[in-house]
Amino acid sequence: MKKNSGTRSGSLALICSLSFACTTQALLGAESVSAASPAQVSGANLDERMQGAKALLDQRNAEQAYHLLSEVEFEGAGNEAFDYLLGTAALDAGKPDKATLAFDRVLALNPKHGGALIDRGRAYAAIGNIEQARADFESALALNPSAPTRKQLATFLAQLSNRQEKLGATVRAYMSATIGHDSNVNFAASERDVFVPLLQDSIQLSSDSARQSDTFLGLNAGIGLDYTVAPAFAWFGAIDAASKRNRDVHQFHLSSLDARFGPVWKGQRYQMRWALSLGALQLGDEDYRRQRGAGVEWRFNISDQRQLVTAVQHTRLRYRDVDAKIFNTNQSVGLLGLSLLIGEGKQALVTPYLMGGYEDDTGGNLQGNKRIAGAGLTGRLALTPTRSLSWAVSGQRGRFDKTDPFFLKKRSDQRFDVSLAFNQQLGQGKKWSLRPQVTWSRQNSNLAPYDFDRTEAGVTVRREF
What we know:
Layout: H1 8-13, H2 43-58, H3 62-70, H4 73-76, H5 80-92, H6 96-109, H7 114-126, H8 130-141, H9 147-165, E1 168-182, E2 193-196, E3 201-204, E4 214-230, E5 233-246, E6 254-266, E7 270-283, E8 286-303, E9 306-319, E10 329-342, E11 348-361, E12 370-384, E13 387-404, E14 409-426, E15 432-445, E16 452-464
């Protein structure tokens, strides 16, 4: 939801992007109020705060404007001009529940205050109270406003109708094709000759363990279904299929099929998504690994520019090949991130995050269990309405708890991944897109067979349905 302008025209214009998911402070509880007594806050001071709040709104700093006024809300409540300014600041700061209270006081004094009716309608729309929002917009229309305002109110009412029509099923799908080159299709060790301390000699890794580069064709497709039962509850499901076909190194073809489904709850400021997942991986056209898991993701809107992201996932990985069964694990991973919209037009989105986890060995891996810790940064920068840059940078450390009997030490890995892509939407409907991209990976390990680097570059054409 775009940040509303401090001017009334800007405030009205951005109502119903109707980001109804932009919601309130219910989970945080009531905000603290200044302990100043009425005698300590003079009328002049109240006027000064109102002037300061107006200036902050003009500077698009609604959060600070709201804070400035909320400190003296007890003293200013009942003043029509103060309450309307407080409601405006609260709404623009992403606090629609607070805004409705302030606008209620305005309308109690002046039931024909058109601005308060419209803005209270916006606030009700933001917290999902469609019927009350509709009633406020219709009441504002009954006041016979100017032609531009009538037109805008008609737009708001149409958007409310569209919102209600979205209850039910929504289907989305995509297909994509990628042509590219992979410098290390098998994630092979950097060196083929490896010294083994137990043997006090060097051995040569097999040909499959030697680094191989190749040109590839990638094909991906997916379909998803969202079924909205009510504004606060929905079901979702998605299936994705992917295949990477190498031109020469056929034994390292990769194909995968993944499915996930579960319920979604939406509160005034949060969204919680539970998911069960199933997956299968083929290597060289043979059944290689199966997985199943469960997880939960929770997103909380701190403001309209900041969102807290947390997720926990537990996955059982089971290998089908007899020689690979020693890698069977139960993996548990947690993530904590903060998504930030940056820039006047919110043209940049960055998400720094921390992650950690544990792999419980169930297959008899000689290196034992593994602890994981890492951090990363993802982002997207809009260059024009149809062009953008996206990137991802991450680092991860993995440590095993048993001494490798051949290398006489506990394995410790450090992995780094960097990717950069340019996105170009094509056509008027923006259904087609072109995406050149490059990814670089490097793993440093104290055990030579697990030391590798890899660069993959390609161009993807994608079609949304």
